[in-house]
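Title: Prediction job returns without error message
Component: structure pipeline
Severity: low
Priority: P3
Assignee: unassigned

Description:
Job completed but the reporter wants confirmation the result is attached to the right record. Sequence as submitted:
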Amino acid sequence: MITENENLESNSACLNNCQIQKQQQLNKSIMLFFQDVPDPRASDNCQYSLCELLFIMLMAVFSGANCIAGIHDYACEREKQLSIILGENFKSPSYDTFWWILTRMDHEAFAKAFFSWVKSVRVPDLIGEQICIDGKTLRGAINRAGKQNIHIVHAWVHDKGVLIGQKKTEEKSNEITAIPELLEQLDLYEAIVTIDAAGCQKEIAKKICGGGGNYILCLKKNQRNFYHEVTSLFSHAREEGFEYVLNCDFHETIEKNRGRIEKRRVAVIGDPSEISREKEWEGLNSLIEVTREVTRSNKTTIEKSYYISSLVESAEEFGRRIRGHWQVESMHWSLDMIFDEDECRANILNAALNLATLKRIVQSIVKGNPLLKKQGMAKTRRRAQWNEDGSVFREICEALFGVKSF
């Protein structure tokens, strides 16, 4: 007959084995990618490993925390749930511990570890992928002198909604120099890189083609003479009904939504030889004109935009890729409206950048998990914040780290 004490010992042993197993799973997932991030603390005075603290911070951001104080509050309120992974004796680290890590941790090493995870788990290669390059300013992040000085250029994989690279620059005007450095981080072989007008530079086009990729670049008046040549070519071709232009293609879509009607017309000229500067642009094969006609409340506005590309594709496909590029703005909207990034007043450079990376990790994981993606970013965070029985905690652990139900 099993005594009560023996039963308690057996249950305790099972619990310990379960915790060991979960910790091993955690080690195989997050520590594999973050173990090379230097710990900024003295090694002889650490109650919690850097990996454990990163785990807590990620779970906190998943659960609605947007700043250091929010991360600490989460750790205090969710000690019981966190102890399932971190051991039954777990007690919340202090605010100062989180502050020290976020302000002292090497933000480049942290981001590099994140991108290593992305490459290993989410995007092994970029063949056929559309890479959207776009920048975002951390408006709430200021230094102690009150100067706003953090702008990040991002590289997003469009179809997967995941960030694969980023480069910090002092201000938006420096994107021209930051973009080539960001492209250096990426294997561009057979990838399709889309960039707004800031990236419409000859050297950037050359770098993309040199890496085995293709480009679609937005053309504006920052390339004044080239812009006027392209717009004039389309204007004259339209007057002639495109009758004498080789390799033309056209596509039109009409969308109706809540009293708003949008017509999008895409025209492609697949023979740029009429442009005097054609040879100056590496691999140039196509010129694209996109016309947006929007009617709302009996008022109609018409906008035209122009693009150049090394690709040879249909007007329909160019239209899809160009529209897809601007969906990256929804990523930035999410960071501002759901993660309150513009309201985060981190006045130390490293803290602002490390918090930004934490939010982008969570954003990328939600986009890549079918269940969480279906719920949406805002709902996922609300459920994690409000849930008391641990079920959402388990969902997020499994999505983040491969830790199965317990």
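Comment from assignee: result matches the submitted record. The chain has 15 helices and nine strands.
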